[in-house]
Specification:
By secondary structure, this protein is α+β, with helices and mostly antiparallel strands. Helix content is 48%, strand content 17%. The N and C termini lie far apart (125 Å).
């Protein structure tokens, strides 16, 4: 090291020499031809926008589907419970139908069963459970299950002439079909 470097510190650092880049003068694109890079960028932007719009639409559709699924889950949550109550309702109705005596004890029993049945029907209505009792109606395979066919007699062909067991709907969804006898032609 030289004495000057020791007293003054190292000398000024050498500056890098500027690089000389040969640049061609920018040529203006001919008036009739658009810049290829600009067209590609616009096309890419258009494709990206299209993807974005499709993704937004897909998300909105998914949100709507999920909302509908949640609504249906709430609406039909009672389905299993309601199906379990149907035999209880049937038994009450049969018990009332069987209690035809005039004895005071039978009358009290019948009255209690009728009040219980009335409460059941009220609860069913409250929760959207409707009775399907198609006696005299046209046979509907979506709500009725034909157990037998009988000669028509006075009834019109393909109408329900007897109901073995009532059917039930939960918010217009079939819980149990009505078991019926249908008039033959």
């Amino acid at each position: 090291m030289s004495e000057e470097e020791l007293t003054n510190g190292p000398g000024p650092e050498p500056q890098p020499e500027p690089l000389e880049v040969e640049s061609a003068p920018l040529e203006a694109a001919p008036a009739g031809e658009p810049d290829k890079a600009l067209l590609e960028a616009q096309q890419q932007a258009s494709e990206n926008w299209d993807r974005f719009v499709r993704a937004q639409a897909e998300m909105e559709n998914l949100r709507r589907r999920l909302e509908k699924d949640i609504q249906n889950a709430h609406k039909y949550a009672l389905e299993k419970f309601a199906k379990e109550l149907l035999p209880v309702m049937d038994s009450l109705e049969l018990g009332i139908a069987a209690s035809t005596g005039d004895a005071p004890d039978v009358a009290k029993l019948r009255e209690g069963a009728e009040l219980t049945l009335k409460q059941f029907k009220s609860v069913f209505e409250k929760f959207g459970i409707a009775v399907v009792d198609p006696l005299g109606e046209k046979f509907n395979p979506e709500q009725h299950q034909a157990m037998a066919m009988e000669p028509a007699g006075e009834a019109e062909p393909n109408t329900v002439v007897k109901v073995f067991q009532k059917g039930y709907l939960l918010n217009d969804r079939l819980l149990r079909p009505a078991l019926v006898v249908v008039a033959q032609a």
